[in-house]
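May I ask for a single protein's sequence together with how it folds?
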Amino acid sequence: MHAWPASEVPALPGKGRDLQIHDSATRGTITLAPGPVARIYVCGITPYDATHIGHAATYNAFDLVQRVWLDTKRQVHYVQNVTDVDDPLLERALRDGQDWTELAERETALFREDMTALRMLPPQHYIGAVEAIPGIVPLVERLRDAGAAYELEGDVYFSVEADPHFGGVSHLDAEAMRLLSAERGGDPDRPGKKNPLDPMLWMAARPGEPSWDGGSLGRGRPGWHIECVAIALDHLGMGFDIQGGGSDLAFPHHEMGASHAQALTGEFPMAKAYVHAGMVALHGEKMSKSKGNLVFVSALRRSGVDPAAIRLALLSHHYRADWEWTDEILAEAVARLERWRAAVSRPDGIAADALVEEVREALANDLDAPAALAAVDRWVERQIATDGDDESAPGLVSRTVDALLGVAL
């Protein structure tokens, strides 16, 4: 599966700062100082209703991570998956009378278009669950053969007790885990499981549903969590720098994935930091496909909204915050974009070297994009109010906003 084209990232004078970021596993801020190549895995979409503002907010957060790292003169090895076979996708295709593969391909293509328009830097490896199946099957067999997994009526389940670190990502108690498991794709009430929280690794073929050759597992398809584990281990290995996604993935997805990987390798941890973006609401409720209260990036673009304004609207909220999308937020972003473009369109201006460092400092501090926007706002106000004589300043501001915030002026 191919990703989307990368926009050019301008080089800035000097060098950026190492990233300090909130880690869900330690429940505190840690400093990440990767080697020459920083490694990040971000969980991708299930392609049946893309791309809503909640998606965009999540991927914007991890795009900022990439930009901070690139500014430190590191390379970035970024991997993202597409869950292109899963119950929600099959259910949507059945509801709408569509072929599930055509639905997945269409929504993935739309996601690529939206990511390109928003100038999100693409992953080096963009891997679908279906294409990952040949690498998933041996992992499930290894877990089963090691006693970390067991069969139940043809299905294969992971035993959460196989990982002594289970629970260390989300820090939830058993009852909270059970409730979220039922809500987010698990089956805690299925009879015969050793532990209600045990997640499925391999689902035996069901009538009328797609299935693949699973070797000694029989025909079937992979569970959700093992998909990401197989892709991450194949392309990044253990101990990569960031496992990222929305806060609704902390449990069960990231918790289970970490345990799968740790049971497979005997190493800990799977990732140095577990980073989670907040949820976006609309009309008082979390934006979600099940509720249908979605604002789509493609619909905004079709209505004539500049993608740079959409991105500024996302950047106006801290990535870990839960917030609500409103028309007023978008209007403020449109106005901000106009002010910024007017300011950098002048032939000269006030010096901007300090601004570069302010933006760097804000983003290195747990991706504080609102503080970065405020710094640019202050420069813009002075630029409009004062006659400067630095011919390089407008260009430097444009490159800074482009390189670090992903906004083209």
Notes: The longest strand covers residues 75-82.
